UniProtKB/TrEMBL annotation:
Taxonomy of the source species: Bacteria, Bacillati, Bacillota, Bacilli, Lactobacillales
Spans traversing the lipid bilayer: 46-65, 77-97, 139-160, 166-186, 198-215, 221-241, 262-287, 293-312, 324-345, 351-371, 392-413, 419-436
Matches recorded under PROSITE patterns: MFS (PS50850)
Membrane topology per record: Multi-pass membrane protein
Principal place of residence: membrane
Domain Major facilitator superfamily (MFS) profile stretches: 11-443
Superkingdom of this protein's organism: Bacteria
Name under which the protein is recorded: MFS family major facilitator transporter, multidrug cation symporter
Location in the cell: Cell membrane
This protein's UniProt keywords: Membrane, Transmembrane, Transmembrane helix, Transport
Protein species of origin: Pediococcus argentinicus
Stored InterPro entries: MFS, MFS_dom, MFS_trans_sf
Gene Ontology MF, one: transmembrane transporter activity
Residue stretches in coiled coil: none
A single cellular component GO annotation: plasma membrane
Amino acid sequence: MHLEKKQQNWFVFTLLLGTFTMSISQSALSTAYPTFMKYFNLPASTIAWLTTGFMLIMCVVMPLSPWLLNNIKFKKLYLSLLAIFLIGTIIIIWAPSFPIVMLGRLMEGFSVGVLFPSYQSVILEITPKERRGATMGTVGLVMGSALAVGPIVSGILLQIFNWQSIFAFFLILLTVVLVIATQTMVSPMKLKPSSFDFLSVFLSLGIIGLLYFINELPKQGGHLTLWVILIISLGLLYFFVQRQLHSETPLLHLDVLKVANFDLGVALTAISYMSLITITVIMPLYYQQIIGLSPLWSGLSLVPAAALLSWLNRRSGKMADRVGFKRVMLIGITLFIIGWGLLLVNPFTHNLWIAIIASMIIESGNAFVMMPATTLGANSLPNERIPHGSSIIATFRQIMGSTAVVIATVILGQSNFKGVFLFFLVLELLALYFALQIKDTKSNK
């Protein structure tokens, strides 16, 4: 479907505004845990499920995205996801107990999990290859800045209002988006109806078990039940992969992982996201525990890095369109190595400005890697496989992001911040090896 320039601009604006607001909800609650603990009289491990449960449901519904795009008109799908998120948010605001809050939170996670790969697929579909770098740079701006802005927004709101104000913020903004979307949203992709593979969906529940194992391992250690969950989950995922590889109409075309450059794109975008999400989680702790800042100021100290990330995203995308993705990603990985290296060898550990500068360098690296790697992967696939590729990238990125937070937390408990910085420095050296394997191309022309 061809869109006029003005129509496409409004379409993309509405899509990204809704995605930005939903993305904020992914990280916004980290600064609100103490408030929830006091309000519901529950321990931190229980309250953490507001984020963990959100991520679990996100990951398990991401593989549904290609089927939904092929069977439901995108306008109807987008409006439905907004409505589900809004209903979940209303439930949370008026919830009389924590289990009801969790129900609303899972509804929010469902909407975000379907939307993340879907909106990337649609934007890639309507954008010519030679301009995808710049367009996906804008997508990266939305994702990266939203992740960083979440704790800042919630921190400011909690200083003035109660915890319900965080969700009231989502409710107001997304209601406006819903009204705009009824006028600006279209369905640019052709439907390709197919039967729904219930068995594949059941087998994909292994993702939930795997993520549960990853998140609970630091808390439960070698508990037998946890290892049983891991074995069952890996078994489910094994049969899920086999079914996708041997079915004529798979829920998810996993065979795209055999495509040159796509596999490298998946690995690089995941490693980049691991660094980004770790910075947003670890650095506020660093500012509080090492430098002695308050929770509010530790959140505000992320603003310079988030602002620079936002400013660079579109520019790095345009650069990728001009000079090729490999060169741009090598720049980004170099910045990652410099940033983590600076934090590791910094002799002035109590200097706030050095910590902020290092964070800015690391998030700058993300601007040159995450979305260029995603675009590189998409450009390696035929258009009909892009929804499957986007779903694979989004799911793998989310799983590795969750893994990164757990690894950082474990290292922090066993060692110190230096151990975390060293681990991610080594991880970026691995990313450098992957980037050097890319078959250089200029927008894959």
